[in-house]
Amino acid sequence: MRFTFRCLDAAADAALVHSWVTRPYASFWGMLSATVEDVAREYARIQSSGHHHALLGLDRGIPAFLMEEYQPAASPLAGVYPILPGDVGVHLLVAPPSDGPEPGYTAAVMDAVLARLFSAPGVERIVVEPDARNTKIHALNERLGFQPAGVVALPDKEALLSFCCRSDYLAARTALQATTALQATTALQATPSRPLISQGASL
């Protein structure tokens, strides 16, 4: 298995997370001007909340993305849409690539995140609310089966509320795997002497 997960340590991992969230590509994360201490405080708050939890995603043991899962009823989404039993919210930030972008990487990360969420008992639908201006993440979400429900006003942004049920995710995953396999076959035929670069790209 390429991707694994571990609980984020608010203090020990603060410098690493800070190095991601303060880069221009992570502007929609809302922490561009944060200090390391700010990051540590924010994630200590998240980890102690009881309804919001942060995980580090590891790529063959190396930190590669930050995932937050949360209960919509205890979030700014409370009262914004009719929350159903089995709804779980997620935020995702992929680390900047250390060796340059790899096509398909972010989709592979999102696939791993959704597979983890749907493996939990009782989870029936994943909810996301990225900034309405974040067109890259909208495209990624739709590729993995999310259905846009419209723009909603949240305290810190105008967000595109989207939902992904289990059946839509599984159908999207099948299509994604078929596309990846076809691309791999085509690349091998075109350059048989060179190893393929596995999936990748950052938000």
What does this structure look like?
This protein is α+β, with helices and mostly antiparallel strands and 203 residues long. 33% of the residues lie in helices and 25% in strands. It is built from 5 helices and 7 strands. It has helices at residues 14-21, 36-47, 105-118, 135-143, 166-190; strands at 3-7, 52-59, 62-70, 87-94, 125-128, 147-154, 157-165. It has a 7-stranded mixed beta sheet, sandwiched between helices. Helix 1 packs across helix 2 (36-47) and helix 3 packs antiparallel against helix 5. The radius of gyration is 17 Å and the shape is globular. The protein starts with a strand and ends in a 13-residue tail after the last helix.
List keywords for this structure.
7 strands; single chain; 203 residues; disordered C terminus
Brief overview, please?
The protein has 203 residues and is α+β, with helices and mostly antiparallel strands.
**CA gyration radius, whole angstroms:** 17 Å
Give the low-pLDDT segments: 191-203
Write down the overall geometry: globular
Pattern of helices and strands? EHHEEEHEHEEH
**What integer is the average pLDDT?**
90
| Number of extended strands | 7
Helical coverage, percent range: 25-40%
Q: Main sheet, how many strands, which sense, barrel? A: 7 strands, mixed
